[in-house]
Amino acid sequence: MRVLKRVLAVSALTVPLVIGAAGLASAHGGVDAAWGQGFFTAGPDGAGVAGAESSVSPEGVSHADFGIWSDDEGVTGGFTGSGATLVNG
């Protein structure tokens, strides 16, 4: 049962991880770039997942990171996010 809970927790949390990519924006000459990284583990001592992402686009900038760990003692985790919208004018 512990293994099932760990697998479910890791599976549910890996879905939102972003695979990083970068490129140039459209003909408007703006910048559009993104970066992402993720990690997960499951073993006899527990299961965990962590991820981070950052992006810059003509609409603004953003950054987020998170981590979560599950073991015999329970589940712990944290999240940090920030962003700004660019205003023309």
TrEMBL record:
Signal sequence, renumbered to the chain: 1-27
User: Keywords for this entry?
Assistant: Signal
User: According to the lineage, what is the superkingdom?
Assistant: Bacteria
- Name the chain's protein: Uncharacterized protein
